[in-house]
From TrEMBL, chain A:
InterPro entries: AAA+_ATPase, ABC_Ni/Peptide_Import, ABC_transporter-like_ATP-bd, ABC_transporter-like_CS, P-loop_NTPase
Domain ABC transporter residues, every copy: 8-253
Similarity annotation: Belongs to the ABC transporter superfamily.
Gene3D superfamilies: P-loop containing nucleotide triphosphate hydrolases
GO cellular component, one term: plasma membrane
Membrane topology: Peripheral membrane protein
CDD domains: ABC_NikE_OppD_transporters
Record protein name field: ABC transporter ATP-binding protein
Signal peptide: none
Source domain of life: Bacteria
GO molecular function terms attached to this record: ATP binding; ATP hydrolysis activity
Automatic annotation (TrEMBL), chain B:
Top-rank taxon, per record: Bacteria
InterPro entries for this protein: AAA+_ATPase, ABC_transp_ATP-bind, ABC_transporter-like_ATP-bd, ABC_transporter-like_CS, Oligopep_ABC_C, P-loop_NTPase
The name this protein goes by in its record: ABC transporter ATP-binding protein
GO annotation terms (biological process): peptide transport; transmembrane transport
Species in which this protein is naturally found: Nonomuraea rhodomycinica
Family, as annotated: Belongs to the ABC transporter superfamily.
Entry keyword Cell cycle: no
Gene Ontology molecular-function annotations: ATP binding; ATP hydrolysis activity
Domain (ABC transporter) ranges: 3-240
């Protein structure tokens, strides 16, 4: 099954903030066209892992270890180079679409700005690609949606737009941190299908951070479980969710509401 | 001590915009010691209904009575005296950041004219250490803050507790715990609990009955196990199908297509018909009768 090429390889990632070790040697690898789910209770370091990949750790954080993408180590990349990677090869989607969307700029403007910057497209080409992306994330009336503003869309549509913006520059890696947590289940279902489809179709390597093991079960290929800054278990979805080998994973599964355990 | 909502209509009016009928004829009863879960997609009118019960939104038509007395728009002070307390989604917004949590809990005790109880006792009841009373809200995590908000609500000895998405801003691990805590505390004190959430799996865990709301109406209501195991309204069925199961099988949940329509211009006939896979001719022209299941497929015999 996992014959895919490794796109991103994190090894021995440690992050210290103010003398406190937040990540204590994280190993994680993302494959082309696969969704890698990252679970674990709050404070275990899931978000920090994603931010480290993006070079967006809080001020004063120190990171050691290695984050390899296409032969480079993102941890040692000069800021200018890292800037190009972020929003280019590596894109992100957060829990709250407001984090990724500017309220005062039209959807079209936000989509094309990234592209013109990263892909060096002219205005017409960028517009055509933006409308195509809006269609791809299934925003109805893409042509018309191009000129509208974020507040004119529902929460689910806004998250789709955030995903379109993340995809604008054809990333190889998508970090999605609780992308459906704020959505209604009905809308979540659509966004999960969308993410799965994009992963299959574009060969994206996705790191999906979620506390929801139902979401994990629906779209992750591999699952890793974090606890106190370490990955305590990694394996194929079916194995980790059905026959967890680590006691902590078992306790997470047992604490689920709505399951007759 | 029963809360009775009958054919409730609540409209929002804002200048230059069409009237929004956020609650469009909803009936619901919450008895003492009973937990009723109110679920439905965002925008369906859950908060508007909850705020009307607390007298924070005026009733346009229909009635809300608590212990037989009509609820009318009241000032905050009078409202707390009626014995209904509300816990909101955002504990950051509902607690005063500048006051010690013990003092804020003491306000609730004063409302109930309780001179005996120590605020620290209430902290203990919500599972927090007594010494937290001297601290300020910013010193706590989201889950702890919500427990403090619950302690403050309980201090007023409510006979009805309303939680409007009280767990939505919390972590999954804290969500089930806080929901269960609210249930236990309400039931132990003999109060009713109206628990609003868009998360059905948590509601299933704590509610005796589930009411499903769609576009301002209650479309299905019943015992939790019945609704969960045998949902009868097509909307309830779609909601439940959309919940992904943690069975490790890699099955994508089913999507319910289309957004919730604009409540300022609801569809004719059954409000769910544009999204319903079973819609028939009658559904497009005639609104189903309210009942345990408001759907033409389940006409009362
Ligand atoms: N800006 C910050 N400065 C210092 N510590 C932080 C900061 N943000 C988060 N942390 C700490 O880092 C740890 C990991 O947090 P995070 O990665 O956000 O966890 P998760 O996403 O798994 O809930 C937590 O202990 C948290 O308190
Ligand atoms: N103060 C208000 N003014 C105008 N419209 C409102 C107001 N509050 C809510 N609404 C509208 O009423 C409908 C129901 O909202 P709400 O009760 O908040 O739903 P829910 O809590 O189920 O998400 C929505 O269409 C919302 O936009
Ligand atoms: S009344 Fe008709 S449209 Fe409405 S839910 Fe029932 S079958 Fe569907
Ligand atoms: Mg996080
Ligand atoms: Mg609400």
């Amino acid at each position: 099954m996992s014959t895919g090429k490794t796109t991103l390889d994190i090894t021995g990632l440690k992050v210290t903030i103010g003398g406190r070790e937040i990540l204590r040697g994280v190993d994680l690898s993302l494959q082309e066209g696969r969704v890698h789910g990252l679970a674990g209770e709050s404070g275990s370091g899931k978000t920090m892992t994603g931010l480290a990949v993006l070079g967006l750790l809080p001020h004063g954080a120190r990171a050691t270890g290695r984050i390899a993408l296409g032969g480079r180590d993102l941890l040692t990349l000069p800021p200018r180079e890292l800037n190009k990677v972020r929003g280019g090869e590596v894109a992100m989607v957060f829990q709250d679409p407001a984090t990724s969307l500017h309220p005062m700029l039209s959807v079209g403007r936000q989509l094309t700005e990234h592209m013109r910057h990263h892909l060096k497209l002219d205005k017409r080409e960028a517009r055509a690609r933006a409308v195509e992306l809006l269609g791809k994330v299934r925003i109805p009336g893409a042509e018309e949606a191009y000129g509208r503003f974020p507040h004119q869309f529902s929460g689910g549509m806004r998250q789709r737009i955030a995903i379109a913006i993340a995809l604008a520059c054809s990333p190889r890696v998508l970090i999605a941190d609780e992308p459906t947590t704020a959505l209604d289940v009905t809308v979540q279902a659509g966004v999960l299908r969308l993410l799965r489809g994009l992963c299959d179709e574009l060969g994206l390597a996705v790191l999906l951070v979620t506390h929801d093991l139902g979401v994990m079960s629906a779209i992750a290929d591999e699952v890793s479980v974090m606890k106190d800054g370490l990955v305590v278990e990694t394996g194929p979805r079916g194995k980790v969710l059905r026959e967890p080998s680590h006691a902590y994973t078992r306790s997470l599964l047992d604490s689920l509401p709505g399951e007759t355990a | 001590m029963t809360l009775e909502i009958k054919d409730l209509v609540v409209e929002h009016r804002s200048p230059g915009r069409p009237v929004v009928r956020a609650v469009a004829g909803a009936s619901l009863t919450v008895r003492p010691g009973e937990v009723v879960g109110l679920v439905g997609e965002s925008g369906c009118g859950k908060s508007t209904l909850a705020r009307a019960v607390c007298g924070l939104n005026p009733v346009t038509e229909g009635s809300i009575t608590f212990e037989g007395v009509p609820v009318t728009p009241l000032g905050l002070r009078r409202r707390t005296l009626t014995g209904v307390q509300m816990v909101f989604q955002d504990p950051y917004a509902s607690l005063n950041p500048r006051r010690r949590v013990g003092d804020q809990i003491a306000d609730g005790l004063r409302t109930a004219r309780d001179g005996e109880t120590d605020p620290a006792d209430l902290l203990e009841r919500v599972g927090l250490p007594r010494e937290f009373a001297g601290r300020h809200p910013h010193e706590f995590s989201g889950g702890q803050r919500q427990r403090i908000a619950i302690a403050r609500a309980l201090a007023a000895r409510p006979r009805m507790l309303i939680g409007d998405e009280p767990i939505s801003a919390l972590d999954a691990s804290a969500q089930a715990q806080v929901a269960t805590l609210m249930r236990d505390l309400a039931v132990d004190s003999g109060a009713g609990l109206l628990f609003i959430s868009h998360d059905l799996s948590v509601v299933r865990l704590i509610a005796d009955r589930i009411a499903v709301m769609y576009l301002g109406r209650i479309v299905e209501i019943g015992d939790t196990a019945e609704v969960w195991d045998d949902p009868r309204h097509p909307y309830t069925q779609a909601l439940l199908r959309a919940i992904p199961k943690p069975d490790g099988m890699g099955v994508l949940p089913e999507e319910l297509t289309g957004d919730v329509p604009d409540p300022a211009a609801p569809p004719e006939g059954c409000r769910f018909h544009p999204r319903c896979p079973f819609a028939m001719d009658v559904c497009r022209v005639k609104e189903p009768e309210p009942g345990p299941v408001a759907c033409w497929l389940h006409e009362p015999a």
